Amino acid sequence: MGAVTYSTTFDATEYPISEGGRWAKSSNAWTYVRTANGQAYGTNGITNSYDDSVAFLSGFGPDQTVEAVVQINAGTVGPTHEVELWLRASDDTNNLRGYELCFGLSGYVQLGVWNGPFGDVLSMDSNQPLAWTPNTPLRNGDRIKAQIVGNTIKAWVNDVLKLHTVHTKFTTGQPGIGFFIRPGGSNNVITLTSMSASSN
Known about the structure:
Blueprint: E1 4-8, E2 31-32, E3 34-36, E4 39-41, E5 53-56, E6 64-72, E7 81-91, E8 96-104, E9 109-116, E10 121-124, E11 143-149, E12 152-157, E13 160-166, E14 174-181, E15 190-199
Parallel strand pairs: 2-5
Antiparallel strand pairs: 1-15, 3-4, 5-14, 6-11, 6-15, 7-8, 7-14, 8-9, 9-10, 11-12, 12-13
């Protein structure tokens, strides 16, 4: 498979996001990503469950890089607000699998390993062996990035490496984006204004 790339600035108003069929999500318990006013954001948070809003591309090879630009808007901030970059993801009517790189509004970066059934996700504090750096809350214009090459997963904020770990569970799947809030927050507090994905 040769190099594959895709980029977007979310110009369309769509629910769910499609962009001419480039994005998809199966009909299942997880929620949809929507776009409006040049931003992508989630639709979950009504129930206190792991119903993340997700959307995935297709046609990419296993070594993937996903980058995006964050926007922070006014709204009610609840206990959890995350934007997600996905690597090697796949879903069907009952399952969601793949690597979720979570970028929290407060500045943390974590790896989520989704194993299939609803709620079956392992959150990993995978910042070692990196030197500890304090979390800085996400700000308008911050650039987030996630990458998997072989079994090595990395994540950056503004080109500063925040996560570096090895995981061997998934060898195939697609890049994507996601969002998650707990009840009481606003879905458009943290959004994405652009995104690009590539594989070699």
